[in-house]
From TrEMBL:
Coiled coil: none annotated. InterPro entries: AAA+_ATPase, ABC1_TM_dom, ABC1_TM_sf, ABC_transporter-like_ATP-bd, ABC_transporter-like_CS, P-loop_NTPase, Type_1_exporter. Residues 25-302 form the ABC transmembrane type-1 domain. The chain crosses the membrane at residues 21-44, 64-89, 133-157, 163-182, 241-264, 270-287. GO terms for molecular function: ATP binding. It comes from Kutzneria chonburiensis. Pfam families: ABC_membrane, ABC_tran. SMART domains: AAA. SUPFAM superfamilies: ABC transporter transmembrane region, P-loop containing nucleoside triphosphate hydrolases. It is found in: Cell membrane. It is a multi-pass membrane protein. Keywords: ATP-binding, Membrane, Nucleotide-binding, Transmembrane, Transmembrane helix. This is ABC transporter ATP-binding protein. The keyword Transmembrane helix applies.
Length: 554
């Protein structure tokens, strides 16, 4: 149980470190609450012996008032301690999720193509939470439970060490039970996490392709996977339910042993009845933290499976990364050049580009054409540094793109592809996506230049109309014009247009040509297209040969 926990801590504790003062304060407060509880039971023992046994009501008020005060104090410090634990836990969640997401942003398109988005969502949500339950709040809970056990056990020893011995005799049993439990539960938790990922993956996929699912879908797919997940959760629940039951039996045996032994001690006049009551009350406090420590194995098991799934993401090698020496030279002028570029995709033998050369000067529009599979989109991917070249260099303003910070490079390039990306939000949000600080006037001006203003104004709430995920309310051509407005507002010096009209029919395609021409004005533009109307806009045309005929130079 400890070894996997150590791995989880080794990798994730650095993230919790910034919260260690908070975690420490929470632990101190919770320990103080346990101290208050110990005092309360002590008072109970006194009340039993002095007040109840002698029927002396006058002696009741003072300890009763102190008890009430201690209970109040315990409530206050306990709740503040709980809140601080939650706060530290939430902060940890936030930084872990940010770290994983920031790493995801450095990974290649291949990485995402091979994985289901829903599974990634599950990793970023519930797996992150399972790690937090151990490394964040788990640390406080374990520490507090350990200290509580020590407090209550010490007080029990002070009351009667013989009884205390009888009470703690059960602890080795707890340890054995917890280890047995941990072994079984770890495997079950792994299966449960994986099945959860699978199910969310399919749900996300089906939701994203609902029309296809409605027409051709296998209706039972979500149900089947849901059943698999349910089974693994039930297997976990069986263990989860069995464990407290077994603990309960062990505790009962131990309480009976204590009462039997206590009765004997009372008969020998070595213990008062108040002492025995207080002792029984101590057991009521002692066992819950021991139980919590036993449950730790479940937390560790879930955190281990969750962390394995997170580490798979965090350890995925980015295909490109920022050089430590990368410096942002500021906004580029837009001179794009490919110098004898050779490229093959990872895990493939055949080069897609070989000795490819191209120069696009600021303000120039170059169309790149060629057969399907000739490598046109690859040219765009290399410029945007989704991959690095195998040979040769890609340069922006004469600087090798590998030496620029990725964020600076991508800030200077706008990408418009055939699949127009829309986000859940209003039309205005979507236009301002690349420049959230844009004013309404700037947004409207961009929409006007993109020939989108008329249709936007005809929508029920104009610029404030919610377009929903993927812009379901808009036609393909309208979406493309919103995307053009977005690119206009982002105002990057370099523009990559990847088949911007290929998913549009004739009239819709015609309507975006003029906005595209306006967008390209004054920028260095690489226009990947088969569309002769777009090719006609180009200053130059580069035709990529069928794979591996001969290098192209213009
Ligand atoms: N991630 C990848 N891994 C392996 N091979 C890839 C990958 N992406 C593309 N390819 C291959 O590289 C070649 C060039 O792909 P690319 O997408 O650049 O072609 P294209 O000219 O843009 O084609 P189209 O006009 O059909 O979009 C194709 O043969 C394709 O199968």
């Amino acid at each position: 149980m400890l070894a996997p926990a150590r791995v989880v801590f080794a990798r994730f504790w650095p993230l919790a470190r910034s919260n260690r003062r908070l975690l420490g304060a929470a632990a101190l407060l919770l320990v103080a609450a346990a101290g208050c509880d110990t005092t309360a039971i002590w008072l109970f023992s006194g009340i039993t012996d002095t007040v109840l046994k002698n029927g002396d009501l006058a002696a009741f008020w003072r300890p009763a008032a102190v008890w009430a005060g201690v209970a109040l104090l315990s409530g206050v410090v306990g709740s503040v301690g709980q809140y601080l634990t939650a706060l530290a836990g939430e902060r940890f969640l936030l930084s872990l999720r940010d770290k994983v997401f920031a790493h995801l942003r450095t990974l290649s398109p291949d990485f995402f193509a091979k994985r289901q988005r829903g599974d990634l969502v599950a990793r970023l949500t519930s797996d992150v939470e399972s790690v937090e339950a151990l490394v964040g709040s788990g640390v406080v809970q374990t520490f507090t439970s350990l200290v509580s056990v020590v407090f209550f056990a010490a007080a029990a020893v002070l009351l009667s060490w013989e009884l205390a011995l009888a009470a703690v005799a059960v602890i080795p049993g707890f340890v054995l039970l917890a280890r047995w439990f941990a072994r079984r539960v770890t495997k079950l938790a792994q299966v449960e996490r994986a099945r959860h990922g699978l199910l969310t993956g399919v749900i996300e996929e089906d939701l994203a392709n609902m029309a296809l699912v409605q027409v051709h879908g296998r209706p039972g797919r979500v149900g089947e996977l849901g059943l698999g997940w349910m089974r693994s959760k039930l297997a976990l629940a069986r263990f989860g339910a069995l464990y407290p039951a077994m603990v309960y039996v062990m505790e009962t045996v131990s309480v009976l042993a204590v009462i039997g032994f206590g009765a004997w001690e009372i008969a020998q006049h070595r213990l008062t009845i108040g002492g025995l009551f207080a002792f029984a009350a101590f057991l009521g406090y002692l066992y819950p933290p021991i139980r919590a420590l036993g449950q730790l194995s479940l937390t560790v098991a879930q955190a281990t499976s969750g962390s394995a799934r997170l580490l798979e993401l965090l350890d995925a090698e980015p295909t490109v990364r920022d050089e430590p020496t990368a410096v942002d030279p500021g906004r580029a002028k837009g001179l794009v050049s490919f110098h004898d570029v050779g490229f093959r995709y990872p895990d493939t033998d055949e080069p897609v580009l070989d000795g490819f050369r191209l120069i696009v000067r600021p303000g120039e529009l170059v169309a790149v054409t060629g057969e399907s599979g000739a490598g046109k989109s690859t040219v765009a991917r290399l410029l945007l540094r989704f991959y690095d070249t195998s040979e040769g260099t890609v340069r922006l303003d004469g600087v090798d793109v590998r030496t620029l910070p990725l964020a600076a490079l991508r800030r200077d390039i706008s990408l418009l592809s055939q699949e127009t990306l829309m986000f859940h939000g209003t039309i205005a949000d979507n236009i301002a996506y690349g420049r959230p600080d844009a004013t309404r006037d700037e947004i409207v001006a961009a929409a006007r230049a993109a020939d989108a203003e008329d249709f936007v104004q005809s929508l029920p709430d104009g610029y404030d109309t919610l377009v929903g995920d993927r812009g379901y309310r808009l036609s393909g051509g309208q979406r493309q014009r919103i995307a053009i407005a977005r690119a206009l507002l982002a105002d990057a010096p370099v523009l990559v247009l990847d088949e911007p009209t290929s998913s549009l029919d004739g009239p819709a395609a015609r309507r975006v040509i003029e906005p595209l021409r306006r967008l390209a004005g004054g920028r260095s533009t690489i226009l990947i297209t088969h569309d002769p109307r777009l090719v006609a806009l180009a200053d130059r045309v580069v035709h990529l040969p069928d794979r591996l005929s001969f290098p192209v130079t213009h």
